[in-house]
């Protein structure tokens, strides 16, 4: 687990982005430090409204880079003038705000502590179904905090899910270090049955399955895909972090899968579902990754074309076996990360661009910046509805929207008056026919 320090400058949009970053880090088991001097990583969310502000941002970045183990710079100035930080010799990672959590989490499993209990956050219910994992990845420090998998009985988790729904949850997020190995400690693969039982709870809600390593779900991927196909309550969304397109690197990482197993999981869900979202992660610059390995990762990304991609530049965690490996130079890692991030934006932009001019049933999950709300369609793709108050749109609503545009990593939608998407015969992704 890492400690973090966040500083935010500028408008309410930046403050909202920092809240999202902090929420993701806390969900991953990371904790705030008392200050930048005590943090494993400092995050500077920048503003660039006037020249004086730019000078202040550069000065603050220089100060943080000297006092903190690692610095991440995000926000408006990072995106518009990231080269200024490099020109000032500031040792920092320049990232879009939504890439920050994945970078800080370093490709590790989220940390669910032994005392983790369900939490209701607005209309989102967080349901930890197990603690620990069955993996022994060479780069991961999380395993030292969590140990081997410990799976409570199905009925216990179902009752917790039912309590969340009765308390007002419209979205249940099923979480764990590796949800795919739920039940392994009892010698049984229980995830498909658990999800089926949760979907049978009375009420109108959606369920999102949290991270499941490819090695964990491969043995149940056909049964699991059938459960997704049979339950409209389940978002058609799977987060399966492949981490590399090279079997040699995966072996050095001590991952429990190889590329072919990952492909088989993807192909099975492609066969069972008309449309679904694949989320995956890549670690760039692992110590044993050479140029050929990097190209294999790029080729896999281009071939599979996931709708959500986390790109993490490798960094050493104390006490892990990978920390003792001779690392690659920072320039090499930066160049490979940049190349993969550019491909990522192309792939994700293409996915969201394909939604324009279609209609979808969505759930309004939370408030956005200004007078906007964040919605999720049946495949858990993010759609922003602006001017929500005047449109009478509230968090927790189910509604039909027409997608009018996109901004690479999310789409914009307009509420559609009249027949709800369900009655119009929406498909598995919530798409309404006849609107092409």
TrEMBL record:
Entry superkingdom: Archaea
Family: Belongs to the methylthiotransferase family. CDKAL1 subfamily.
Residue numbers spanned by region Disordered: 415-436
Segments forming domain Radical SAM core: 119-354
Gene3D superfamilies assigned to the protein according to its UniProt record, in alphabetical order: Methylthiotransferase, N-terminal domain, tm_1862 like domain
Ranges where the MTTase N-terminal domain occurs: 2-109
PANTHER family membership: RADICAL SAM PROTEINS, THREONYLCARBAMOYLADENOSINE TRNA METHYLTHIOTRANSFERASE
SMART domains per record: Elp3
Enzyme Commission code: 2.8.4.5
The name this protein goes by in its record: tRNA-t(6)A37 methylthiotransferase
Catalytic activity line of the entry: N(6)-L-threonylcarbamoyladenosine(37) in tRNA + (sulfur carrier)-SH + AH2 + 2 S-adenosyl-L-methionine = 2-methylsulfanyl-N(6)-L-threonylcarbamoyladenosine(37) in tRNA + (sulfur carrier)-H + 5'-deoxyadenosine + L-methionine + A + S-adenosyl-L-homocysteine + 2 H(+)
Keywords: 4Fe-4S, Iron, Iron-sulfur, Metal-binding, S-adenosyl-L-methionine, Transferase, tRNA processing
Presence of keyword Nucleotide-binding: no
Domain TRAM, residue spans: 353-417
Record's cofactor remark: Binds 1 or 2 [4Fe-4S] cluster. One cluster is coordinated with 3 cysteines and an exchangeable S-adenosyl-L-methionine.
InterPro entries reported for this sequence: Elp3/MiaA/NifB-like_rSAM, Methylthiotransferase, Methylthiotransferase_CS, Methylthiotransferase_N, Methylthiotransferase_N_sf, MiaB-like_arc_euk, rSAM, rSAM_horseshoe
